[in-house]
């Protein structure tokens, strides 16, 4: 098993931030500056076209660390952030841009390309989790959650279906086409976000993916607005969801 | 205008509880024992077959007072609690029991009877709000919210559509048949609860009522489970919704 290499560390506003690499995968681990000896871990995925330090990632990490006392790990997805793109990545990105410029639906390209990325990303996440669990402040038997929307749902659904260490997950903003089968194997608590006026994902598609989860405890949060208008308070809701299911430390920010 | 008559008062665990009557309508006003001179008011409705002191009412009132610093008022709906039933009430209750015993859908009776009750209840609520706003700790220009599920949604939707003093509302667990038209006139922020496995209200019906609200800000919370299995954490979510929109005092209970 490969070990994490920490390459940089800073602390600010109660959050300790460490860059790491696992082989050629770069990531960031955010942790409480002070707190109990061990705390639950949230694996967090970024959306398509963004990366591990995208504002949505740093903002959610801060909420999870200060609001729940969690450790939060993000890695760059294949072909994203500091990682090289393959010829296949370039082809699919070009296909997406062509669809956008032609005013055609993005869904078919996103569904297909994200499914491809998930095949590459799931083993990377499992190796990253193996390595993170070697850290004494996380540990091999501590609670683990997964939090990822958009492309990070396309990766997180098959990851959660195949890794029993993940016991609670927040997903959202994706189609059921490539994911419903894996979702039907997920029985852990799920919170699922969708946008009622999503210009890319039809309502029926979002509802069908929510419906597919086999979880006895699952919640759907629908908000009025377009694809990119998910309200910020859903990030606070995700913190509370993980506190309920993984047992973090409640500290609601004002 | 009639004035509220307070008939009893107790205080416990940070909550001041006052029984009142407005003419022949009995109600309860829950308030913070200490706090700012004025605070927003939540009008809260009870479900069919229950009353102003049903455990769901006292539990939500405690959360709203201690979690948001709100005043919370509940009145007995017509034919409920300490109020007499008319011959028409008795007929409709008998029709509901017959449908239940025969294993027939309750929806048609509930929709029809609740629409009738709403016609009686809306003017009562408006008179109650007039009288509550005479109290110095509430005031005529303070923020007002409405919180009611089941029958209290059947009453609250036409009430909110017709009374501009209500600027945020939590509804849920009802059919669109008699309510969609009023919902289309509501533009204030709405949070709407439904149950994914509701044995009485089809999914399409709940989604259609949510869809009908004209509000730019609206959130739908769907949870797995049957009609009566709405999770308790939705009451905490309602507190946060009212804090966001009416400006209460944040105090998340652990």
Automatic annotation (TrEMBL), chains A, B:
Protein name: Alpha/beta hydrolase
Entry superkingdom: Bacteria
A single GO molecular function term of this UniProt record: hydrolase activity
InterPro entries linked: AB_hydrolase_fold
Keywords: Hydrolase
């Amino acid at each position: 098993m490969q070990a994490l290499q920490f390459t940089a560390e800073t602390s600010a506003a109660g959050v300790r931030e460490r860059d790491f690499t696992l082989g050629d995968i770069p990531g960031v681990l955010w942790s409480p500056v002070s707190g109990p000896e061990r705390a639950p871990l949230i694996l967090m995925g970024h959306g398509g076209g963004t990366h591990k330090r995208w504002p949505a990632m740093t903002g959610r990490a801060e909420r999870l660390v200060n609001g729940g006392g969690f450790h939060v790990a993000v890695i760059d997805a294949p072909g994203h952030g500091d990682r090289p793109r393959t010829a296949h990545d370039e082809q699919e990105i070009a296909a997406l841009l062509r669809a956008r410029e032609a005013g055609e639906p993005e869904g078919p390209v996103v569904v297909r390309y994200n499914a491809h990325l998930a095949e590459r990303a799931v083993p990377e996440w499992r190796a990253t989790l193996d390595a993170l669990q070697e850290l004494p402040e996380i540990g091999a038997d501590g609670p683990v959650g997964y939090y990822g929307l958009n492309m990070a749902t396309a990766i997180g659904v098959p990851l959660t279906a195949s890794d029993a260490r993940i016991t609670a997950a927040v997903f959202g903003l994706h189609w059921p086409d490539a994911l419903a089968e894996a979702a039907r194997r997920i029985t852990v608590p799920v919170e699922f976000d969708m946008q009622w006026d999503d210009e890319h994902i039809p309502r029926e598609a979002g509802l069908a993916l929510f419906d597919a989860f086999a979880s006895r405890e699952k919640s759907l949060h629908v908000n009025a607005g377009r694809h990119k208008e998910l309200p910020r308070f859903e990030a606070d809701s995700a913190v509370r969801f993980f506190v309920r299911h993984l047992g973090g430390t409640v500290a609601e920010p004002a």
